[in-house]
Amino acid sequence: MAEEIMQKIVSLCKRRGFVFPDSEIYGGLANTWDYGPLGARLLQNIRNLWWKKFVETRSDIFPIESALIMNPKVWEASGHLASFTDPLVECKICHARVRADKPEDMEAHTADHPGEEVTWTEPKNFNLMFKTFIGTAQDSKQEVYLRPETAQGMFVNFKNVLTTERSRLPFGIAQMGKAFRNEITTGNFIFRTLEFEQMEIEYFVKSADWEAAFEGWKEQMWDWIIGLGIEESKLKWRAHEKDELSHYSKRTEDIEFEFPFGWGELYGLAYRTDFDLKNHSGKSVEELQYEDPETREKYYPHVVEPTFGLNRTALVVLLSAYTEEGERVYLKLDPRLAPYKVAVFPLVSNKPDIVEKARDTFAVLRSTFAVSWDDRGNIGKRYAAQDEIGTPWCVTVDYQTLEDNTVTVRDRDTAQQERVNVDQLQGYFQEKLK
Ligand code: GAP
């Protein structure tokens, strides 16, 4: 059943243009996906909402966009070169490598060798960072890494933001962008991929204030995900055990979601102490302390880090929205997330007056909303096609429109229709999207 739901989502995503297997014409690349016209809109809508909630409407959070490839000394100081590893074992039959800390992956691999006795090498730590080279010679000293988290870009710019924004504690730096990890995993669609996008905040506080900040961020993260329309019963907080904490964290709690393949991490909230700022101060030319403007006391701020995976958000949104009612399949997306807010149809495509009026309506709405146009097949099929991609409202221009300037607006979730004057349509949808 669980597998069936995942397959249905994967197939809908491909068929309708949300997510395609990456470089499919060459047979694809494991754990790598591309986002199509609808998927790109969905991601952008999530980014926009996140940006509005955590950056635009706050005076204590400053955005940056740092480079994906940074000075490699960053990763030495941050501890990623030494500690950002997964334990891997190698199958002695086919030499495939599998996560030693995931018995389910080892079991799945054993099933690939029916009738054979699979034995494994001892676990070895494998660094998750992708290494590449600057310049042409591969043996040059210019080894660099694709960033495995966006966080370090914010730590190395701490002083720059502090100075340019004249910010005072507590304050945060936010950024969204790609991160890369050489993950050895088994599938699960866009859940765990080689490249993905993070939306992260490093929130700097006085050391005595970290617990209050942690509790505050727990509430804000919960608020965010519930605000996207995700069912509360499918979400829970899970605190990391001591032995699973990242090398930089004293306390981490994840928001987990009940995926069809089991509970899994959606977001993380970590107390990173002063680990990063202190280490960068010791290893770089800059002292990353904060000077209290009143007392003149100098100290390293402590960090509470809420981190949100964009692609996992998209997966959770799609899984939660997927609805089957008899023959009817639709995505019950929050209208703010829907790739298209409205679809416009002419009732018939062989009456020039109706088509022209529909075109005009489409053009007017498109200046404000993402609007789709469809004049193929019958109306029932057009509704079904829009339902399947989560378009909340369909507007049909018909014979009556030519008489009284009204159109039918059909609601995705209730299938109810009402007549609205064309001149009022923009305000009507704006009100609904609030
Ligand atoms: N800066 C902290 C940090 O990177 P993380 O828990 O390793 O923490 C943060 O990653 C978030 O990034 C996760 O909660 C998840 O949403 C997302 N994420 C991590 N690895 C991922 C992967 N391989 N594929 C997709 N999303 C991933």
From TrEMBL:
<dbReference type="InterPro" id="IPR002315">
    <property type="entry name" value="tRNA-synt_gly"/>
</dbReference>
<feature type="binding site">
    <location>
        <begin position="191"/>
        <end position="196"/>
    </location>
    <ligand>
        <name>ATP</name>
    </ligand>
</feature>
<protein>
    <recommendedName>
        <fullName>Glycine--tRNA ligase</fullName>
        <ecNumber>6.1.1.14</ecNumber>
    </recommendedName>
</protein>
<dbReference type="InterPro" id="IPR022961">
    <property type="entry name" value="Gly_tRNA_ligase_bac"/>
</dbReference>
<dbReference type="GO" id="GO:0005524">
    <property type="term" value="F:ATP binding"/>
</dbReference>
<keyword id="KW-0547">Nucleotide-binding</keyword>
<feature type="binding site">
    <location>
        <begin position="181"/>
        <end position="183"/>
    </location>
    <ligand>
        <name>ATP</name>
    </ligand>
</feature>
<dbReference type="InterPro" id="IPR036621">
    <property type="entry name" value="Anticodon-bd_dom_sf"/>
</dbReference>
<dbReference type="Pfam" id="PF00587">
    <property type="entry name" value="tRNA-synt_2b"/>
</dbReference>
<feature type="domain" description="Aminoacyl-transfer RNA synthetases class-II family profile">
    <location>
        <begin position="8"/>
        <end position="339"/>
    </location>
</feature>
<dbReference type="InterPro" id="IPR033731">
    <property type="entry name" value="GlyRS-like_core"/>
</dbReference>
<dbReference type="GO" id="GO:0070062">
    <property type="term" value="C:extracellular exosome"/>
</dbReference>
<feature type="binding site">
    <location>
        <begin position="309"/>
        <end position="312"/>
    </location>
    <ligand>
        <name>ATP</name>
    </ligand>
</feature>
<dbReference type="Pfam" id="PF03129">
    <property type="entry name" value="HGTP_anticodon"/>
</dbReference>
<comment type="function">
    <text>Catalyzes the attachment of glycine to tRNA(Gly).</text>
</comment>
<dbReference type="GO" id="GO:0005737">
    <property type="term" value="C:cytoplasm"/>
</dbReference>
<dbReference type="InterPro" id="IPR045864">
    <property type="entry name" value="aa-tRNA-synth_II/BPL/LPL"/>
</dbReference>
<comment type="subunit">
    <text>Homodimer.</text>
</comment>
<feature type="binding site">
    <location>
        <begin position="265"/>
        <end position="266"/>
    </location>
    <ligand>
        <name>ATP</name>
    </ligand>
</feature>
<feature type="binding site">
    <location>
        <position position="99"/>
    </location>
    <ligand>
        <name>substrate</name>
    </ligand>
</feature>
<keyword id="KW-0436">Ligase</keyword>
<dbReference type="GO" id="GO:1990742">
    <property type="term" value="C:microvesicle"/>
</dbReference>
<keyword id="KW-0030">Aminoacyl-tRNA synthetase</keyword>
<dbReference type="InterPro" id="IPR002314">
    <property type="entry name" value="aa-tRNA-synt_IIb"/>
</dbReference>
<keyword id="KW-0648">Protein biosynthesis</keyword>
<feature type="binding site">
    <location>
        <begin position="305"/>
        <end position="309"/>
    </location>
    <ligand>
        <name>substrate</name>
    </ligand>
</feature>
<dbReference type="InterPro" id="IPR027031">
    <property type="entry name" value="Gly-tRNA_synthase/POLG2"/>
</dbReference>
<keyword id="KW-0963">Cytoplasm</keyword>
<dbReference type="InterPro" id="IPR004154">
    <property type="entry name" value="Anticodon-bd"/>
</dbReference>
<comment type="similarity">
    <text>Belongs to the class-II aminoacyl-tRNA synthetase family.</text>
</comment>
<feature type="binding site">
    <location>
        <position position="149"/>
    </location>
    <ligand>
        <name>substrate</name>
    </ligand>
</feature>
<dbReference type="GO" id="GO:0004081">
    <property type="term" value="F:bis(5'-nucleosyl)-tetraphosphatase (asymmetrical) activity"/>
</dbReference>
<dbReference type="GO" id="GO:0004820">
    <property type="term" value="F:glycine-tRNA ligase activity"/>
</dbReference>
<dbReference type="GO" id="GO:0015966">
    <property type="term" value="P:diadenosine tetraphosphate biosynthetic process"/>
</dbReference>
<dbReference type="GO" id="GO:0006426">
    <property type="term" value="P:glycyl-tRNA aminoacylation"/>
</dbReference>
<dbReference type="InterPro" id="IPR006195">
    <property type="entry name" value="aa-tRNA-synth_II"/>
</dbReference>
<keyword id="KW-0067">ATP-binding</keyword>
<feature type="binding site">
    <location>
        <begin position="196"/>
        <end position="200"/>
    </location>
    <ligand>
        <name>substrate</name>
    </ligand>
</feature>
